[in-house]
């Protein structure tokens, strides 16, 4: 099942909170988990967000140091782990020229810890449904493909992509 195009983009503003720590420890692919209680979620509630894997843009923090990153993002229950709590977990993707780009154990971006900071997230496109995987190797391979697809799609120059990248960089409300 895909998400209807009229539901996209999915815009969110929240605070980064500690997750289950599996992205960093089990998979080597850290995420900046959104707080379900403090956030604004595109005109609806956290629980109304459609599950799946998405691509888009996000920014952590404010001011001169903030940067708009491409992102691959999971919304859902992490079926490989049988979670009962829905999460929103964007993985920030540094530019190819950034020295942090290949710093983690699986070859993806490690940017630091962002707990307590504001995150602005726009999910522009749907990649695939959440799926259970037999083993972490298959899950990591799927996430790496999601990251690669997100990088390619984030390079687009269509009106929606440019508009959402600009919104993430702004201070405009949802």
From TrEMBL:
The UniProt keyword set, sorted, is:
ATP-binding, Flavoprotein, FMN, Nucleotide-binding, Transferase
Which SUPFAM superfamilies does the UniProt record give?
A: Riboflavin kinase-like (SSF82114)
Q: Which GO terms describe its biological process?
A: FMN biosynthetic process; riboflavin biosynthetic process
Pfam families according to UniProt: Flavokinase
Matching entries from InterPro entries are given as:
Riboflavin_kinase (IPR023468), Riboflavin_kinase_bac/euk (IPR015865), Riboflavin_kinase_dom_sf (IPR023465)
Q: What class of enzyme is it?
A: transferase
Q: Where is the Riboflavin kinase domain?
A: 7-155
Which EC number(s) does the record attach to this protein?
A: 2.7.1.26
Say if the entry is tagged with keyword Metal-binding: no
- Protein name, please? riboflavin kinase
């Amino acid at each position: 099942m895909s998400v209807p195009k009229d539901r996209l983009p999915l815009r969110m503003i929240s605070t980064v909170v500690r997750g289950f720590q599996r992205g960093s420890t089990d998979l080597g692919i850290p995420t900046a988990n959104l707080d379900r209680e403090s956030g604004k979620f595109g005109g609806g509630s956290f629980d109304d967000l459609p599950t799946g894997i998405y691509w888009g843009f996000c920014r952590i923090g404010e001011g001169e140091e903030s940067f708009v990153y491409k992102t691959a993002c999971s919304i859902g229950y992490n079926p490989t782990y049988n979670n009962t709590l829905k999460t929103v977990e964007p993985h920030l993707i540094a530019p190819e020229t950034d020295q942090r780009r290949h710093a983690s154990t699986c070859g993806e971006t490690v940017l630091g810890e962002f707990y307590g900071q504001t995150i602005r997230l726009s999910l522009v496109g749907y990649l695939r449904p959440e799926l259970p995987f037999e083993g972490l190797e298959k899950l990591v391979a799927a996430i790496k493909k999601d990251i690669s697809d997100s990088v390619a799609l984030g390079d687009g120059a269509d009106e929606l992509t440019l508009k959402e990248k600009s919104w993430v960089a702004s201070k405009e409300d949802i």
